Amino acid sequence: MKDDSGQFSETGLSQLAIDPDVLAKELSEELLGDPLDEIDDEKFNADALEIAKECERGLQWLKQGHEERLQGLRIFCEHRDPRALPLLIPLLKEPCPVERMSAVYALGRNPCPSAVGLLVQILETDSNAYVRKATAWSLGNYGDASVLNPLIKALQTDIAAVRLWASGSLAEAGGTSSERADLAANQLLISLRIDCEPGVRSNCIWALTRIYEKLCESLREQMLEQLVYVLVNDPEVSVRDEAKVALEQLDDPLIRDKLKRFMQDGL
Domain range spanning residue 109? Predict the structure, then answer.
């Protein structure tokens, strides 16, 4: 999934919180294989010891003042430690938006079921777009059914940066069941047709391919038809390329025939 550029260029923000695309990349890399297969035990033990020490420092910093809390939040945007959860949740109500944003990222890295309600409320009501953007990303790490409709609403109504991450998180929230996948796909298809931002449309395509296997037959057909339409008609080259890659990945015989005909016709 691709992030929009420049959203965290405001002075100081990039130093105070980990950007969600970095965290998402780390999470995806963890799924590729066991890192223990690639490093020796001695190095692993040294790394684990250093991480444990860092988390200990982070726990102490979260109990102190504003500047120390920011340092602690940076640690738990990178590392998981269940002991941090009761210290992170209260920070969601801090008046400083940078603290709220960083706490939201940390709770994406360290999912906490009891934080779902607060995160949903933040996505729906927080006045700061950076905080809402962080929340749209973090909610993708929660399998709770209550996150689906708030993410759909964010994709319908929020600014482009939030819509971008809401579309991606819908792939995670919708991928837990066929019923949720159908709900997510309905809005993703609408946004793919009408959203004015190419990045959001591209992310809608990415999200749809993630939940394709769980969709009902009629929505699968709608999705394939829409992807073919995007491939031929979308004004943005990057979105057309995304549609082409998605269609190739789905590996449907009918789609392969259509793509072959399009190539033969020079489209």
Answer: 1-142
Q: Which amino acid is at 256?
A: R
For residues 134 and 159, state if they share a domain: no
Q: Report the candidate in 156, 154, 153, 188 with the shortest Cα–Cα distance to residue 171.
A: 188
Question: For residue 253, what pLDDT band results from cuts at 50, 70 and 90?
Answer: confident
In three-state secondary structure terms, 84 is helix
The domain that holds 35 is classified in CATH as 1.25.40
**Helix intervals (H) in 195-252:** 198-211, 217-233, 237-250
CB-CB contact of 92 with 108 (8 Å)? no
* pLDDT single digits (tens) 62-104: 999 999 999 999 999 999 999 999 999 999 999 999 999 999 9
Q: Which tokens belong to 267?
A: 């489209």
> Structure pTM?
0.79
Q: 139-148 as b/e, with b when 16 or more CB fall inside 10 Å?
A: bbbbeeeebb
155 touches 189 (CB < 8 A):
no
114 CB-side CA count, 13 A: 7
Q: Both 129 and 167 in a single domain?
A: no
Separation between Cα atoms, residue 98 and residue 121, nearest integer Å: 17
User: Amino acid identity of 257?
Assistant: D
Cβ(232)–Cβ(261) below 8 Å: no
Whether residues 162 and 112 share a domain: the answer is no
